[in-house]
Amino acid sequence: MSAHIKKGDMVTVITGNHRGKQGKVLVAGVDRVVIEGVRMVKKHARRSESLPQGGIIEKEGTIHISNVKLIPAAAQ
């Protein structure tokens, strides 16, 4: 099955809590996408070499692909 959204596309969220937000697609899966700056979630991280203090990290969460709409290249 081929999705209409690909990595690097500009999209807008059409429904849900983040309706109206726009951003670039960072990851496009079969039925979910990650959009830059949309649906920021807090993740608790254990101490590691890359994160010596540990702590809470904010990163983008996924949104179902049916809740986003492609912004045409002409409109950007």
Structure description:
The protein is built from no helices and seven strands. By secondary structure, it is mainly β. The two termini are 27 Å apart. The radius of gyration is 15 Å and the shape is elongated. The chain has one domain (10-75).
Which key phrases capture this entry?
two-stranded antiparallel ribbon; 76 residues; mainly beta; single chain
Q: What is the rounded distance between the termini? A: 27 Å
Number of domains: 1
| Count of β-strands | 7
Order of strands, widest sheet: 6-3-2-1-7
Oligomer: single chain
Strand content: 35-45%
- Describe the main β-sheet briefly: 5 strands, antiparallel
Low-confidence stretches: none
The percent of residues in helical segments reads under 10%
Secondary-structure map with pairings?
Elements: E1 10-13, E2 22-28, E3 32-35, E4 40-45, E5 55-60, E6 62-64, E7 68-70
